[in-house]
Amino acid sequence: MQLTGKNYIAGATSAEGAETFFSVDPRSKQTAEPAFHNATNAEVDRAVEAAVPAFQEMRNYSSSRIADFLDEVAAQIEGIGGILLDTADRETGLGLPRLTGERARTTGQFRAFAALLRDGAYLRPIINSEEPGQPSIRQMQFPVGPVAIFAASNFPFAFAVAGGDTASALAAGCPVVVKAHPGHPATSELFARAFGAAVERQGFPAGTFSMLQGNGHDVGQWLVAHEGIEAVGFTGSLRGGRAIYDAAARRPRPIPVYAEMGSVNPVVITQGALASRADDIADGLVGSITMGTGQFCTNPGFILLQESAASQDFIAAVTAKMQAAPAGVLLNEAIAVGLESAVEQTKANPEISILTGGEAVAESDYFCFSNTVMQTTASAIRADDRLQVEHFGPVTLFVVCDDADDLRATVDALEGNLTSTIHAEAEELDDIGDLLHQLREKAGRVIWNGFPTGVAVVQAMQHGGPYPATTAPGTTSVGMNAIYRFMRPIAFQNVPDPLLPDPLKDGNPLGIMRLVDGVNTVEAL
Ligand code: NAP
Exactly one of 297, 368, 390, 401 is catalytic; which is it? Predict the structure, then answer.
């Protein structure tokens, strides 16, 4: 399959920009043809201007019609075949087993949203009947309009052109304009073709999907500033997410930005847990820190323990295992440079000890950073917020606390995270409850005796958290509830039945679950 290096705008390819960049193989640092064209401002405009009328058409589509489209996208992604896996492997170094699993997760997300739409209850129809002194009020969820999506570098399938942000925005009924990640432009082009085929086969408007290539911040900034965009989904760095959030706020008409950014994912290990299963925890922790060369937003970057001989033995065991684990491939040069600079900043603090690693593997043929373990004190963490920076790679920091009070004070000082984890024993439940709920305040997901890497795509999943983990802690970017980032509730007061949308009509013609005067029911009024 011949790659073009062009942008994909509402069903047509386009390459008006003179600036180009190349796909790089992180294992060899070699570039590959073709040249990919940065989108121009005019191309960004065209993509959004096609999405606006597409939305005017799509907002009239039934949920089942959109569900058919989502199923078609999943089939088209599968139809790309092995070249998708090989291309993504060449551009990310993530390996075929991981990518095969990620592709299944990606198509699974589209099919799960299709099932959600066919059930219908996701529209959340709520009816309060008219009573003396109170009008009839009926509300349900509606799509917001064209959405800008920023693909992440570390999940070329599941958080990229066809990732969860795109799937949830399309499921909501919103056209998307995706800013592809410059780390995997060829993979992105393959996905764009699959979307194009799905749009054509299902007879959706051409502006339902566009994809813009870009290496540098201009394309993203133009996209967010465009008046036709109504919301933004982003996964990436704190710096990038914050810049896009600020750009959206500077617009004459600000829009919401759902950015999922950095996280150190604190793990607390009690003395009881160490006494009963230190070896198992060390193995699990090292697996979690080094999985995907540590390039997960849920990587455990902060391990909190109380000072003791058992804690020091545990830190030594984790350090030895990290030393023995092979150094993995980093996704691209920007990630390698970013990791090196974050670790340098941390090392500059005199309270930091490097137990192993701490530097880039310069002589390597591939982008590589040594597996790294650092140690510091609880008081150092409380004295310097910069020590809470995310080290996006195979790096962790042990925080040794003097006692239980010191540990609690340090948890209080933590910034927002995607996850927090606690390893403890059943006998400690009476003592640990307050600490667990203190950790709850700092994260979107609390894990008991497990490891944070690995995010199940299920109804109850919460992948979000207080800033700086996200810009919208009330939302999730994984799981079915991700759809509500791109919908908004609208209430109808005393509107006559024939003018109400079907989910709110007296007779409930769609037969979907509704909350009627406080009772969940599928019955007609
Ligand atoms: P990134 O640098 O934030 O880039 C993400 C996307 O945003 C790219 O398309 C990038 O394209 C664009 N972008 C970045 N800064 C921008 C700005 N100021 N204005 C407009 N667009 C901007 O993220 P990344 O390359 O995926 O990874 C870098 C770092 O992000 C990692 O080292 C890690 O710390 C963090 N990260 C976190 C997660 C997570 O899930 N929380 C996932 C991946 C990475 P351009 O460069 O072309 O502008």
Answer: 297
With both helix axes pointing from N to C terminus, report the angle between 82-92 and 63-80 in degrees, rounded to the nearest 10: 70
In a domain, 174, yes or no: no
| pLDDT band for position 503 (cuts 50, 70, 90) | very high
Q: Is residue 416 part of a domain?
A: yes
CA of 372 to the centre of ligand 1 (A): 23
How many structural domains are present in the chain?
A: 1
Residue 427 scores a pLDDT above 90: yes
Q: Is residue 382 part of a domain?
A: yes
Residue 311 maps to which CATH number? 3.40.309.10
Q: Which residue has the tokens 């030594």?
A: 316
Closest by CA position to 186, among listed 348, 2, 317: 2
Ligand 1 centre to CA of 276 (Å) is: 41
Would you say the CB of residue 236 lies under 6 angstroms from ligand 1? yes
Q: Which atom of ligand 1 lies at the shortest distance from residue 237's CA?
A: 30
Q: Which of 363, 329, 361, 359 is nearest to 344 (CA)?
A: 359
Query: What are the percentages of helix, strand and coil residues in the chain, rounded to 5?
Result: 45, 20, 35
- Joined tokens for residue 359: 């530097």
Instruction: Please state, in angstroms and rounded to a whole number, the distance separating the CA atoms of residues 462 and 455.
Output: 9
Give me the domain span that covers residue 417. Answer: 266-448
Helix (H) or strand (E) holding 150: strand 147-150
Cα–ligand 1 centroid distance for 468 (angstroms): 14
Is 203 within 8 Å of 7 (Cβ atoms)?
A: no
* Residue 396 identity (one-letter amino acid): T
The model's pLDDT over 314-356, given as tens digits with 9 standing for 90+, comes to 999 999 999 999 999 999 999 999 999 999 999 999 999 999 9
Is 266 in contact with 304 (CB distance < 8 Å)? yes
User: Minimal CA–CA distance to 370: which of 404, 347, 397, 336?
Assistant: 336
**pLDDT recorded at residue 454:** 85
Q: Which residue, chain included where needed, has tokens 């919460």?
A: 462
Active site residue 260: yes
Distance between CA atoms of residues 162 and 283, nearest Å: 33
Tell me if 63 is assigned to some domain: no
Is 393 near ligand 1, meaning CB less than 6 Å away? Answer: no
Ligand 1 atom nearest 338 alpha carbon: 32
Q: State in Å: Cα 392 to ligand 1 middle.
A: 12
